[in-house]
Q: What sequence folds into this?
């Protein structure tokens, strides 16, 4: 496994600020996301970076050695971004495609970073279903896209970003009997799914279900995450939705999680651009996307309006 800047940044700010909560606020992330990054880094290096037996996290001697290298690495990252920005101020456009999930979580942060580094950049974001985004990428109507990792072609440069935890959810008005149930028992319910014809996520989940020999007879479908969540909230059936994004509705009792045996797999998301179009700017964009990618927090106004 490769060490990522996100893991190093999480470790650095926990060490600098003295806690997961402080680091999470600094990085505009959740406490669990920062903890996960630190644990991944510890697993890759096979060392303990913090002593967790104390009331507050305390850096270990191994962590003290790593913090010096990490500080240099992050400083070099910032210098490289500033250097690149100072060199390339010529007008350039970026046609960037994302699905609804990215639009409602970390796209604003990415746009903020891009505008800060490239003040003259003309941004043309497109929000669409993943299959449509891939077709536009192939037709050179988009420069890069962020989609589920369901599109593998030799002509594509594919940059891993993060994975998303999905869970079966429904309105308590639809089903409020069991906290956990066999996956096969869902076949007796109405299942609200992503349209396979337009959704890479739908394809990945459908293939996973097929491998488990599960088929649903009664389904409703849409390519829109907003529509899927609205249908689910309306009590029309059970759907798979991104777990962290819907915490607000779960906490308020408007949605409930149905735990199944086995549980849904995590879905990997990637940034894709054509190898033939690869240049320094797209590589920097991929690095920024990896740095900004955070699917566990939704844009505050998205659900506040519901």
A:
């Amino acid at each position: 496994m490769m060490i990522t800047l996100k893991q190093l940044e999480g470790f650095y700010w926990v060490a600098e600020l003295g806690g997961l909560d402080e680091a999470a606020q600094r990085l505009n992330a959740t406490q669990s996301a920062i903890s996960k990054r630190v644990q991944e880094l510890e697993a890759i290096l096979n060392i303990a970076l913090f002593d967790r037996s104390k009331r507050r996290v305390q850096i270990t001697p191994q962590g003290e050695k790593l913090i010096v290298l990490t500080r240099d690495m992050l400083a070099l990252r910032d210098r490289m971004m500033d250097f690149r920005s100072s060199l390339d101020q010529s007008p350039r456009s970026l046609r960037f495609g994302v699905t609804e999930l990215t639009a409602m979580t970390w796209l604003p942060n990415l746009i903020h970073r891009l505008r800060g580094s490239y003040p003259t950049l003309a941004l043309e974001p497109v929000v669409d279903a993943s299959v449509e985004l891939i077709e536009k990428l192939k037709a050179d109507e988009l420069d890069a896209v962020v989609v589920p990792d369901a599109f593998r072609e030799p002509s594509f440069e594919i940059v891993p970003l993060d994975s998303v935890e999905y869970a079966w959810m429904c309105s308590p008005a639809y089903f409020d009997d069991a906290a956990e149930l066999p996956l096969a028992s869902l076949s007796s319910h109405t299942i609200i799914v992503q349209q396979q014809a337009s959704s890479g996520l739908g394809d990945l989940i459908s293939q996973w279900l097929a491998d488990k020999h599960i088929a649903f007879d009664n389904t409703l479908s849409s390519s829109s995450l907003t529509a899927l969540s609205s249908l689910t909230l309306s009590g029309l059936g059970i759907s798979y939705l991104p777990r962290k994004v819907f915490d607000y509705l779960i906490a308020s009792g408007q949605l409930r999680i149905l735990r199944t045996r086995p549980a849904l797999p995590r879905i990997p998301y990637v940034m894709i651009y054509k190898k033939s179009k690869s240049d320094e700017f797209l590589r920097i964009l991929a690095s920024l996307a990896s740095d900004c990618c955070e699917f566990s927090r939704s844009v505050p106004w998205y659900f506040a309006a519901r």
Observations:
- Residues 61-87 form the longest helix (27 residues).
- The chain is about 40% helix and 20% strand.
- The domain at 5-85 is CATH 1.10.10.10 (Arc Repressor Mutant, subunit A).
